[in-house]
Every structure is written in C-alpha cells, then in structure tokens.
Amino acid sequence: MSDIPGSALILGGGIMGLSAAWAVARQGTAVRLVEQDPIPNPRGASHDHHRLIRHAYGPSLAYLRMVEAAHGAWDLLWAELGERLMVDADVLALASSPGGWLAESRAALRAEGHAVQDLGPAELARRFPALSPDGIADAFLAGRGGVLLADRILAALLRRCLALGVTVERARAAAVDPGHARLRLADGTWRKAELLLVAAGPWAPRLLPGLAGRVAASRQVTVFLEPPPGAREAWAAMPMLLDLSESGGFYLVPPVAGTPAKIGDHRFSCQGDAEDDRAATPAEAAAILALARPRLRDLGACRVLGARACYYEVEPRERILLEPLGDRAWVLTGTSGHGFKFGPLLGLGLARAMAAPALRAGLPGWAAGEAPPPAGLLPAA
Ligand SMILES: Cc1cc2nc3c(=O)[nH]c(=O)nc-3n(C[C@H](O)[C@H](O)[C@H](O)COP(=O)(O)OP(=O)(O)OC[C@H]3O[C@@H](n4cnc5c(N)ncnc54)[C@H](O)[C@@H]3O)c2cc1C
User: Fold this and answer.
1) Whether domain 7-367 has CATH 3.30.9.10
2) Which of 153, 215, 244, 351 would bridge with 95, disulfide CB 3.0–4.6 Å?
3) 201 lines ligand 1 (CB under 6 A)
4) Whether residue 49 has its Cβ less than 6 Å from ligand 1
5) Over 80: is that where the pLDDT of 246 sits?
6) Could you tell me if the CB of 337 is within 6 A of ligand 1?
7) pTM above 0.90, yes or no
C-alpha cells in the first residue's frame, strides 16, 4: 500500500504554502489550500518584485549546500512552468571592517569549491562606478546567484497548483487543531485532511501559541528606486549588493526584468505584528536611504518610487522550522529574511517525506541547517 496521503490541507498561500501544495499535489494527493487574502498576497512575506538567491551563508555549510539543492528545485519548477522566473546575478559582498560574516562566507564558499574573487578599492571603483569604495575594508564577488521574480513566481505557482487540481479556498482560519489535522474557519465550519501543513508566515505565532518565544514578527522596510536617467542598463547589470558593515549594512537588488531597484536593511526590527499596516513612514524610508547613501554615488539622482513595510517571522538564529505538530500536522515557519529561495526545495522535501515516513525524523534538522538531508530525501545530483 502506498504511504502517499490521500488528502492534504495547507494553511497559507505564500511561497511556502504554494510550494508545498505544488509538491504534494504532483505526487497525487488531493490538496486544499486555505488563504485569507488574494494570491499573491500584498500583506504576505513573499510579496514583492524580487527575492535573492545566493550561496554566501556566513559559516553555515549546511545552508550553503542547501542553496545548491534549492537551485535544482527551482530548475524543476521552471521546467514545469515553462518559464524561468529568475535573472542570474553575481553577489558583491562588502564590509567596513575585516572578519565577520563576510570572511566566514568567503572561507565557506572556497571550502566548497565556489569561485570567489577578492576586490580591493581600486578594482571596486573600476568595475562598479556606481559604488563609492570609501571606507570599504573588504569585498568579494561570487557568482551563481540570482534575482527571483517573487510575485511572478507566486502567480505562476498558483496557476500550476490549479492545473494540478489543488482547491484554493479564500477564507480565514480562526483555529488550528493539529491533533485532527483540521482548521476551523472564521465562519465556524471545519476543513480537514489526512495531513495538515501550517505555512502562515508572520501570522504563525498568532495561530500556534507554542511558537511564542521561538519566532517573532518583524517589520522590515524596503525602498524602491528608479536609477538615474540613462543609467538603468548599467544598474541592471550590477551584482546584488550585500553591505555587511556593522554600522548599518543594507542590500541592493538591481533593477532587472523591468523591476525597480530596491534597497533594504539586513537588521531585524523585531517590532510589530502581521496585522499591522504595510505603509512605510517617511522616517522609515529616510533611514533606509541613509544606510545606502555612503555607498551609492548616484543615490541622490535616483527617483524614489515608494517604500513599504513587509513582515516576516524571525527565528533568533535564522533557523527554518519544519516541525511535526503531532502525527498528522506540520508547521513551516521561522523563514526570517532568507526563506524564499528554499520554498520549492522545502515543499519537495516535505512531499517526499510524507510519502516515505522513515524520512520524516530528519526533516527538522535539515530545514534548520543543522544536519544534512536524510538519505533519499533529495534526488541524487
Ligand atoms: C523585505 C523582505 C526581504 C526578503 N528577502 C529575501 C531574500 O532576498 N531571499 C530569500 O530567500 N528570502 C527573503 N525573504 C524571506 C522570504 O520572503 C520569506 O521567508 C517567505 O516569503 C515566507 O513565505 P511564507 O509562505 O512562509 O509566508 P507568507 O508569504 O507571509 O505567506 C503566509 C500566508 O498565510 C496566510 N495566512 C496567515 N494566517 C492565515 C489565516 N489565519 N487564515 C488564512 N490565511 C492565513 C497569509 O495571508 C499569507 O498569505 C525576505 C522577506 C522580506 C519581508
């Protein structure tokens, strides 16, 4: 008899819920996905023009290796979608002092055989004229990263799920009953299945009180920019930029595939709640621009197109939590500011483990970046 569950109920239509729905449905399970908002959801952690994929992961060899596997999962998805919703981009990491995350990433990348190019100030200025090299103590360029076109991916995944027969229900879940793999909706009716997955993004701590103290919602502000007149092409060809300076680093996403350029803050605010407003205040936008001003020569010539707040749920050590809630339910949360790249991979891993119960015990350690994937979870490279 097959171990593949006959039915699955998924709460949440962000990248995690949609990826899981896709992966579970493609192995023959009947899936119902419950989502309170439209998909793509403007309030969701997954909503935006872009999300980044890069191998640099500080000292974490497990997550670095997981990025390689994540590329394989994206490739499978692109093949099924019939389009590749990612633009290749190098990663330029900078810091105002030596050591730290940048040096750890460089060492880990090299140990794993990735090409990493060290750049001094003169080389930085020559290759990236939009950058000011002043105050940069260390920098490297690494390849094989990319800009994932997030909203387009969510819309395409939704279409793929519907084509696979996934039922998408627009409703708010008022309560989760993991023991019976069921949800109580706001209208008082219940939905249930053989297997339940809660992938509620920053709403998860509201729904599952057991997560209190383990993950917390965090308000993060991003600012969208139109590059200076005549410079769009040059900006679009820039690498993604990770400025890891301790005094206040930021990241820059180049304006690829018709999207605006974007800057944001690496640091977690750990403030706010998933139900809060998404409009950024002028002061919040100004604080993000101030982080980038010393590094981007032409920032003053850029047009600020807007700013918005996004909420994700932070796990203090940025470990992704994919954990059982009893025998028939799982939660996928704590994806912090780095989970999007792993969406399809985690979905495929969960689906595989649902069909092969012996693999389930290895899921939490793998997702948390603490253990290799259990043997047989991922297809051989
Ligand atoms: C500013 C920012 C930058 C980021 N940058 C990157 C990056 O460069 N690279 C990267 O890999 N990751 C990045 N991330 C992280 C990544 O986007 C998240 O890890 C990921 O999107 C989380 O997806 P999710 O599906 O868990 O959550 P969400 O997208 O929030 O989806 C959860 C869904 O559950 C629904 N839901 C919740 N409660 C209920 C309920 N009671 N009833 C019905 N529906 C409900 C919500 O409406 C929501 O649509 C970034 C995140 C942010 C905010």
Assistant:
1) yes
2) 244
3) yes
4) no
5) no
6) yes
7) yes
